[in-house]
Amino acid sequence: MHNEENEKVVKIRGLKKSFDENHVLMGVDLDLYKGENLVVLGKSGSGKSVLIKIMVGLLTQDEGDIEILGKNTAGLSLKEFNKLRLKIGFSFQHSALYDSMTVKENLVFPLTRNIKGLTRKEIDKKVDELLDAVGLPQSVNQMPSELSGGQKKRIGVARTLILNPEIMLYDEPTAGLDPITCGDINKLITQVREQFNTSSIVITHDLTCAKATGDRMAVLLDGQFKAVGTFEEVFNNASDQRVKSFYDYNFIK
Amino acid sequence: MPGISNENKPLISKKIDRFFIGLASAFSFVKRFFQEAFKPPFEFREIMRQSYEIGYRSLPLISLTGFIVGIVFTNQSRPSLTEFGATSWLPALISIAVVRAMGPLVTALIAAGKVGSSIGAEIGSMKVTEQIDAMEVSAINPFKYLVVTRTVATTFMIPILVMYTDFVALMGSFLSVNANELVSLSTFFVQVFEAISFLDLFSSIIKSLVFGFTIGIVGCYKGYNSSKGTEGVGKAANASVVMAMFLIFIEELLFLQIVNAIRYA
Ligand SMILES: Nc1ncnc2c1ncn2[C@@H]1O[C@H](COP(=O)(O)OP(=O)(O)O)[C@@H](O)[C@H]1O
Ligand SMILES: [Mg+2]
């Protein structure tokens, strides 16, 4: 599918990141094509979150280049980088909802702070539209503490979609959820791509989620992507024993 | 990798190194406050909301403490003055003690406990639950929205609360003086105002501004740099109070030196 268009929305080359003696990323190369869902697999602590946090500037790399929507992030001023950030939606592992605000305020906050001059009606419409999209219109006036884990994830996704991002980054969207809710979230991820025309990176160590949401998989091992391709390519022809064992662990256990 | 480990060798000792690194990061935090505070947008609404919270949170305790301090200090001073037959100096003595030292100190210490800890805990929990990161990735400046607003609010609210504490403490003192020395309210306050100079009032306000700034910035700093986990939030709240109180005492001492140098110059 991407081979025809071949348009890359994210291009990462030679990315390195260490924390003191802890060498987390050691030369990561990655492409994200327009419209695809790319799943990043890797065991806990392998640097998956670090990778996407570097992409949005929550951490800075030691070495390497990141090009997002044609812009190299290293050379940007904060103002320019913030502009780029609006085109990237980030769904946090633990949702990171603003717990002193209602669901509606959570959505309105990033919207009104970045887009000036919206009328109250426009804002309400946008909020309704997004809550509908994630299937939680009834939660509009609830506080985050009243929501279940799966609902929080959905609101987190709605909050980031409200700025119409072109790229979505999901950090372990199904971690800590029951299997049924996992399935719902997987559906949501696929639906978001259709409805909002996003390209996404989905981080997970759950192969069911990977299979359900991903067009391509990339396995992060020892700070590099060791296997990249479709689910079958990665796991049927896995040359690396550890990639295989990843599969075994998920499906045999 | 042997080549790299060299760089991580402590300069003096690990503890002292960490102290100086901490100091440097605290200074850059304060510096950032001044860089951001004067750049628009000014977040007036959030500042007002925070100011209200601060007043609302500390008013009951400050009222009670101020009042009791006024009564107790008056009753404790009375015997010494009686020995010299100088109980008529009570209003002046209390006035000076309250305005110069006790009002600001009592208010700041209580606010450090009530307000400082809650700022530390609130920002700490926002840090730990990645709410601060969430602001950052949606191009909202969390430093401005969280730190600048709270610090500005404490800086301006503490002087207001100090004036209130002064008043309440003097009222407490008046009750005692009125009952024992049969001094009327107007006489009491005439003597109170005669005793304090412009320098007293002015330095009290400046000192309160500094105390307020200290409480806000320390709470924010400790919260902003809190370590991961729920434990980190508790630590941040606790460290905010300890650090703010410590600094308040140091500042009190410094102010005393400076004001006395001016007064007796
Ligand atoms: N801010 C940080 N400071 C120091 N070490 C970090 C930081 N963030 C992540 N790490 C370390 O980087 C490694 C990878 O973390 P992470 O990307 O969160 O793993 P995961 O793949 O489970 O998301 C871990 O060893 C973690 O301890
Ligand atoms: Mg992670």
Q: Helix tally of chain B?
A: 9
Broad structural category of chain A: alpha/beta
- What do the pLDDT scores of chain A average to? 90
Find the CATH superfamily of chain A. P-loop containing nucleotide triphosphate hydrolases
Q: What is the total number of structural domains of chain A?
A: 1
**Quaternary organization:** heterodimer
CA distance, first residue to last residue of chain B:
63 Å
Ranges of chain B where pLDDT stays below 50 over 5 or more residues in a row are 1-6
| Unreliable runs of chain A | none
Helical stretch tally of chain A: 10
- Main pleated-sheet profile of chain A: 6 strands, mixed
How many beta-strand elements of chain A? 10
Shape of chain A: globular
The beta-strand count of chain B equals 0
Shape of chain B: elongated
- Approximately how much helix is present in the residues of chain B? over 70%
Ends of chain A: how far apart? 33 Å
What does this structure look like?
The complex is a heterodimer of chains A (253) and B (265). In chain A, the strands form two sheets. In chain A, strands 6-7-8-3-9-10 form a six-stranded mixed sheet, sandwiched between helices. A four-stranded antiparallel sheet of chain A has the order 2-1-4-5, covered by helices on one side. Chain A has 253 residues and is an alpha/beta fold. Chain A has one domain (8-250): Rossmann fold (3-Layer(aba) Sandwich), CATH 3.40.50. Chain A is globular, with a radius of gyration of 18 Å. In chain A, helix 4 packs parallel to helix 6 and helix 6 (149-161) runs parallel beside helix 7 (179-196). Chain A contains ten helices and ten strands. The model of chain A has no long low-confidence stretch (mean pLDDT 90). The longest helix of chain A is centred in the C-terminal third of the chain and has 18 residues, at 179-196. In chain A, 40% of the residues lie in helices and 25% in strands. Chain B is mainly alpha-helical and 265 residues long. Chain B has one domain (43-263). Helix content of chain B is 85%, strand content 0%. Chain B has helices at 2-5, 14-37, 44-83, 90-128, 131-137, 142-181, 185-195, 198-224, 230-263. Residues 1-6 of chain B have low confidence and may be disordered. The structure holds adenosine-5'-diphosphate and magnesium ion (MG). Residues 48-49, 93, 171-172 of chain A line the site of magnesium ion. Residues 19, 22, 24, 42, 44-50 of chain A line the site of adenosine-5'-diphosphate (ADP).
